[in-house]
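Chains adopt folds. We examine one example:
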Amino acid sequence: MASDEDYMAFLDKANRDPNEGTAKTQGKGKVELKALDQGVTIPAALKKATSDAFYVSDADEPFVPVCLKFEGKKLPDEATFAKLVNHPSPDDAEVQIMDIGEWDTQGQYKEIVDATRDATKGSDVRVYRIGREGSRAEYWVVGIGSGKLIGAKALAVES
């Protein structure tokens, strides 16, 4: 049987931030993708929906609002989306476009999807999956409204 100190050390290690010690860079290495453009206002429905929402994976990560300036009339293709979020190599980015039902098979993210539809006044909503380093991926639930790409994103750790 382990001592109390050993057990607490185990719990501390298990609860440590997996990103601890990594820097957000704009060159090579770990890069934070852009979710918000300067000067844009996040729709109230998205603020409310993302305030307590988490994407369930090996690391339950919070959803964060997405609001990017976009002048297109239809949702962007994979390369255009990678450029919008400032992916360091948009032409080589692992971007996959998914339908809502394909991504949310059990309907557990209905509030995020509904908030995105409300914020975009009923536009088509799609999910963009961007493969990151290792077993990480980001899921972007977005639609088009008022000259912006609006929605939410979350990090997933998939093993």
